[in-house]
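Let's practice the habit of predicting before peeking. Look at the sequence and jot down your guess about where helices and strands might fall. Then scroll down.
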Amino acid sequence: MVTFPAFISRLFLHKKKLIALLLVCPSYTMAQHPPAEYHHLFTAGVASGLMGGLYDGFYPVDSLKTKGDFGLGAPDKLDGELLVLNGKVYQTQFTGKTFEIADQHHRVPFCMVNFFRANTVIHVRDSMNKTTFYHYLDSIMPNVNGMYAIHIKGKFRYLKTRAFPPVNGQPYPQLAGMLDRQHFFQYKESSGDLVGYRLPVYMDNTNISGYHFHYLSDQKDAGGHIVDLITGDIAIEISELDSYTVQVPATPAFNQFDFKKDRQEDIKSVERGAAK
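Done guessing? Here is the structure:
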């Protein structure tokens, strides 16, 4: 039987040992739970490289999760579209099949993520088409040179999304040359999440400037890159970002890639889902 004084004595001894461990190895707890950087954008890969055919994955999903719990990108071999929400990574294939990626060693060719914490939350019930909605977002994000992560959750009267089929066999075609291979999906009266960003022009080529959203339904069974939309009853959450880093691939294909070509128009065509 342990007496109360003996219990207190053992507890105190345990506490002293824990303090000694932290003094000897102060990184012990930090290594287990590194602090989240809520205003930093991390990008694996280079957007203009993806546009030019760098589709081979190089950055593991499990490493991506240490850089952010929110974001979007492309899967290995361009097999559809990626979305990161609440620390989980989802893939929508060109067939429309949508699922959480179970293989944490799956590697991505391009993805941008951040740890999401909203600075602004606005509830909007007005129905707006994509052009009107983007103008509205501009009005509540007045810094044209600011970086914003945007989470939109709720009901949508209409959504049109797309996903690319996987590539097989090199040389890989440029992404703007694959627009005729896109598969489109249309949803009416759908509920779910839009995950996206509005990034400034000076980030073009490394990232994608302007608005860029991917969708995931509440049932987690539908998604894709947003091509068109009509909003319904939604909540808009905005997180302002103030810094970013880019992890470049250490691959022969990247090392030999020609970045002198201006791919801004290709990026815009791919973002719209159609050539000019």
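How did you do? Confidence is low (pLDDT under 50) at residues 11-15, 17-33.
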